[in-house]
Inverse folding.
């Protein structure tokens, strides 16, 4: 096992309100583990005190560090966080912590079939949703159907913000990533299939957060556009070695 077994990458944009509780929960969970770990908060150019929150936590816990970036989007923040990490496994964790952190154990090796990428899924067997409005669920299903057709056939939930990558997969795929917005998940999983990495979906408990920054209509249209871009870049050799 490497000195750093697990890196937790938290992309954040103006998360001064939610981040303290999330960092407390994640640090508390990891403190019970025997393996080496780190937490990287990739601050996507926040104009609130998100960075100050991370700095204060890091004063007490040296394994927490801040990655300050210019504002370009969630995908941009995740890419930089993944490539700055040192862990043998790298866990993408949304700042709202809508998945209970204890369920991370389900995504790490030993729980399910071996895979280089394990993604938390709100559609896989054993998953449960809490508090999600029916309209939001229906729009998510439409988006996921579109994503499966254009980029990721066979994957039921590409957009859940909790995913674990082996270091080899992370360093290969995020170096190729071109999208900065919300569709980066679909691009990464599309590339994973092209490169022969195994992807496993694991059911999780997911709690709807009303403060979500996702705007279904606006971001749905942008994501559809980005999926077309992914297909075009694939056909024109943009992702080839």
């Amino acid at each position: 096992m490497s000195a750093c077994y697990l890196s937790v990458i938290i992309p954040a944009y103006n998360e001064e309100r939610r981040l303290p509780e999330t960092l407390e929960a994640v640090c508390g969970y990891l403190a019970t583990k025997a393996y080496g770990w780190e937490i990287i908060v990739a601050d996507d150019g926040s104009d609130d005190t998100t960075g100050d929150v991370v700095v204060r936590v890091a004063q007490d816990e040296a394994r927490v560090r801040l990655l300050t970036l210019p504002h370009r989007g969630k995908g941009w923040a995740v890419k930089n966080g993944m490539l700055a990490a040192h862990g043998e496994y790298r866990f993408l964790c949304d700042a709202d912590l809508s998945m209970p952190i204890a369920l991370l154990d389900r995504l790490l090796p030993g729980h399910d079939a071996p895979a280089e990428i394990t993604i938390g899924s709100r559609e896989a067997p054993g998953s449960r949703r809490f508090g999600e409005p029916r309209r939001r669920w229906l729009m998510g299903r439409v988006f996921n159907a579109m994503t499966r057709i254009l980029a990721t056939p066979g994957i039921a939930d590409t957009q859940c913000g909790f995913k674990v990558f082996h270091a080899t997969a992370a360093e290969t795929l995020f170096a190729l990533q071109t999208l900065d917005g919300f569709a980066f998940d679909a691009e990464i999983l599309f590339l994973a299939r092209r490169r022969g990495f195994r992807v496993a979906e694991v059911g999780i408990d997911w709690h709807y957060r009303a403060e979500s920054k996702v705007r279904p209509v606006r971001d749905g249209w942008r994501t559809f556009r980005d999926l077309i871009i992914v297909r075009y870049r694939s056909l024109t050799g943009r992702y080839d070695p």
